[in-house]
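Notes to self after the Tuesday call (sharing in case useful).
The group wants a holo model before anyone commits to mutagenesis around the pocket. I volunteered. Ligand is adenosine-5'-triphosphate. Logging inputs and output together so the record is complete.
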Amino acid sequence: MIQPVLDARGISVHYGGVTALDEVDIAVGPGQVVGLIGPNGAGKTTFIDALTGFVRHEGTVRLDGVDLKRKRPHARVQAGLGRTWQAVDLFDDLSVAENIAVAAHRPTLVSTLRELLGATLPQSAAVASSLEALDIAHLAEARPRELAEGQRKLVGIARSLAAAPKVLCLDEPAAGLDTDESAVLGQQLRRLADDGQSMLLIDHDISFVFGTCDHVVVLEFGKVIAAGLPGDVKNDPRVIAAYLGTAAASISGERS
Amino acid sequence: MTQALELRGLSAGYHGSTVVRDLDLRVGRGEVVTLLGPNGAGKTTTLCAISGVIKTHGGSVTLGGEDISSVSPTRRARRGIAHVPEDRGLFFGLTVAEHLKLGRRGEHLDAELAYKYFPALAAITNRRAGVMSGGEQQMLALGRALARQPGLLLLDELSLGLAPVIVERLLPVIRQFADETGCGVLLVEQHVQLALGIADRAYLMGHGEGSTSYDASELLNDTRLIEASYLGGDDLDLESLATDHNQKIYERETQ
Amino acid sequence: MQNILLFSILGLASGAIIATIAIGVVLSWRGSGTINIAAGAVVMVAGYIFWCLRTGYFAPALMMVPAVLLTLVLMALLAVVVEVVAVKPLRTASPLARLVASIGVLLLFQAAVQLVFGTAPVDSPAVLSAEVVEVVGVTVPIAHFILAGVVVVLALALSMLYRFTRFGLATRAASENERSAILAGLSPDSLSLANSVIAYVVAGLVGVLAASVVGVSASTLPLLIVPALAAALLANFTSFGIACAAGLAIGIGESLLFYASTQSWFPTQDGFALPGMQQVAEFFLIVIALWWRGSSLPQRGETAGRSLPPVPRQERLVRRAAPVVLACAVALVVLPSDFRQAVTTGLVATVLCLSFVVIMGYVGQLSVVQLALAGLGAFTVSRLGTEFGIGFPLGPIIAIALATVLGVAIGAAALRVRGITLVVVTLAAAIAIEQFVFANARWGGGQTGAPVESPTLFGVNLGADASFPGLNGTLPSPLFGLLALVGTVVLYAFVANLRRGDLGRRMLAVRSNERAAAAVGVNVRAVKIVAFGIASALAGTAGVMYAYNYSTVSAGSYGIAIALTLVASVYVLGVTLVQGAVLAGFGAIGAVVPLILQKWVLPQDQISIWVQLIIGVGLLVQLKLFPDGLLVGMELKKERRAEHKAQSEPSVVSPRVEEGVPA
Ligand SMILES: Nc1ncnc2c1ncn2[C@@H]1O[C@H](COP(=O)(O)OP(=O)(O)OP(=O)(O)O)[C@@H](O)[C@H]1O
Ligand SMILES: Nc1ncnc2c1ncn2[C@@H]1O[C@H](COP(=O)(O)OP(=O)(O)OP(=O)(O)O)[C@@H](O)[C@H]1O
Ligand SMILES: [Mg+2]
Ligand SMILES: [Mg+2]
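Result:
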């Protein structure tokens, strides 16, 4: 078995009296796309929040063998955990390219000091390449406020991609995209994965999830109720009852 | 049949730039109509212009036979428009129960109805909307809109963030709600097949241009039209296809 | 023991007033999502109205009951007027704009009252019983208890109103999200008006009582806003009960601290009690309360509304700045001496205002402590020179470093509040510095002012008294002005450049959304601390320049009233643009614009009150025309026009067109 890039074990999260996650284990291997699905309120977003340090959690998160437990969110991101938000949060005062540049540049004490003394730092190539990867180079100079919802989603993904994360956690990237657009996004993500990008993918567009992921984990009430190859998960009666409904039958283009 | 909503020559947009041009559209009582079009076509803009949260640049909006073009958005809401916007229009500091109590003086929201359609909400009545999951928020927004018992329901991105089982249960609910209360529903939905499944009619929007009305079941069978609109093909194309389409219907009917 | 009781009860009255103002702050936060800096001034106005009616200042004196009722009616009317003039036009603007408007209202109320009634406090005829009671052996006026009791009852009533009624629910909804409220059929305008009226009437009632118990003063009552803000912050700006309790507690605490200062164990200096202990204690109380309450990143579901005006791109700055620089250089040589001085002051104030551009404009944190830090720098230069013989350039370097360190420390202590609520902590810090350092006869100038030695380098005097007079042969020497000009230009370029670079982008990211910024690897704390550092260093520099410019430092130039005025004027002129700092700098006290007003426009007596009145009116007018600030508003218009043109040609933001989409 190959060493997973991301190894989260025994993740539990409590909000007051509510247990949002209960001992969840998920591992993501190199170049693997792991899907995380489940009913509304199952704890999927909370899981990403826990990984990236935005909520207090129990359990261990290891990235390439390094324990992230004591790190604050920005340090976890710098260590290689990228994420997007379910409700896109672009920086309204910056253009699309600048939004991405914030993620692409990793400041050091020296570079900050040099900048304070008036030096201009070179533009990172990651800005252009991540815009390119999602086919939105033409939006580079636009302001986030002027974009339609679907475009904002793509910019959000490009932004987290620009930080060259070891694992990219995407929270409902296809929400707000139509069927065809999500298919295109699926292809783009697949291409990235084939180039070695590991991903954790949450979405409710099941053709998109099943068509893109190598492995699918299903949460319900904060617990894993099924995990495995897309084909197996799809036919699991518990998953059908809790989440898929009759839509299970119509899933197309699934990866084996 | 009287119309729940009628738009004539509606134009709308943002400080100067017009996004929607010369749109004609109507929604009958108890009718479910869907507005289709690619990303950035102006669907959201249209709904906002109807509920009045953005100013129109021209044309008229008629609600239940009354011209409301110059009526303030607050008054429009009081006259029975319930608009579930793209960002869901919730109050992060208010709990579920408070959302279902909130209304203008004398207005009574049917909270039971919301809990009936979305049982998941009943379990979290005291949770603040801000901390709820995306799907839970969507349920609350829809539940609240239904609980207001509107005369016109504007739904932007109906299925956004909802689990497939919920969507599956929800669609018939909307249909039934429209049939039973006579509420007109104007629906924007990214998943075309879903939308066409419950709609009576559909409008296709190209980029900024007005659109033609189609029978929903016709569109379900004729994907060419939708493709043309979504691919942003030039208007000529769309129009010739539309004539083509109408021709076919005509032929069938005359046979 | 008896004394402790006595002083506690004596503190009850001022505690009740602080509590009322705190309640007013909570009301306006709930009603319109902003901090009302004028809440104290409103109580004062009520006190004066009542005093007029009772003593027959304008018309025949009224009996007590009609006077009280009429006061309340007039307060309700005043609420309507303020709502129409200063609140309604800004309903869709950022909360910061509304906060600045409330500063305008404060300045206006205070100046108007002082112009009409003078600056001496007035006492109304008693409303409450003048009897005294004996409590455990001490005799105290019963009115103190009644006043406190009234405030407690008001707090309870208000918290019931907002918790249990439809109106309370609707108010919470509308102040959180205006658009959603409209879609829900609520009318944010009428809700806001109703809340204003409630706030003014409540303040009016207590103002009436206070006028007869402790008297009203136009110069001190409005400034009780500072402890009241602390109480409101503890109450998270939402709980009436906590705001009321905290307000009363602060009043009692102040009174007890005053008692303590008469004791032998209290720290003294030259035989007198150390000044400013109370303000320092308040500051630390706030900081401790924050650690126990806030979190260093906003939590899920904490609404982060748009709290600041947009940041236009800054282009072709050299071309725009060059003529101004040239004009300044010429003016510094040819103008008469008072104008030369005013130009230099304008330059120095520009540097100070640049610090607001960094911390408020770029990072979105409303800090008002910078003027106090400038004062600290100025006093340090003075003391280092006169007492330790440390002159230029080591003295200023130490002074700037000191201001920076203190500023960073305050910023670090305040990391758990963000946006406009930061104003509370920084106000408390500013007052603490003012009372603890400036008012201290040994460290600060006391009330007299501290001398500053002119800077010399290699034996050449660079100061305002250099042997190189202006064209008309008088001092101040243009040499210092020209040096100040060079310094200002460098710092101006620095701040403008900041916006374009990597650090500036990170600042704007933090300003937009701290959670999202952290999620792309931005160290939010570090960015804020760096920004506090830069702002404080700029402020310290300005302080040093002030000191050299006037050759003396006096505490009066660094008070919080001036700080608030400065913040407000930077905002209305354009806080996200470096040019805004220049305009605000030249409009600052002692600079060119006020000098012109003083010389040719305004009556000679009560000049500072007139200036305050004009600034108050100016703020409100300006906000009505350009809610985002003058220069920002104009810049945005220009951008939009350019965009519009671009849209008629092929657009940059052309919607996505995909090829080869699978059907
Ligand atoms: N601060 C909080 N306090 C109380 N409950 C919370 C808090 N934050 C989240 N929750 C609850 O935790 C549960 C998990 O939420 P989460 O956002 O992880 O769900 P999700 O699986 O992402 O759902 P969706 O598919 O709808 O986005 C939800 O029921 C939510 O209401
Ligand atoms: N506030 C705004 N200012 C300027 N332009 C805007 C604004 N909001 C939207 N637009 C532009 O108007 C066009 C239509 O946007 P709209 O949101 O109505 O599209 P939509 O059909 O709802 O798209 P989607 O399917 O992505 O939600 C887009 O091209 C967008 O760039
Ligand atoms: Mg989620
Ligand atoms: Mg839309």
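Two things stood out.
The beta strands of chain B are 3-14, 17-28, 32-36, 56-63, 66-67, 81-84, 152-156, 184-188, 201-204, 213-215.
Residues 232-246 of chain B have pLDDT under 50 and may be disordered.
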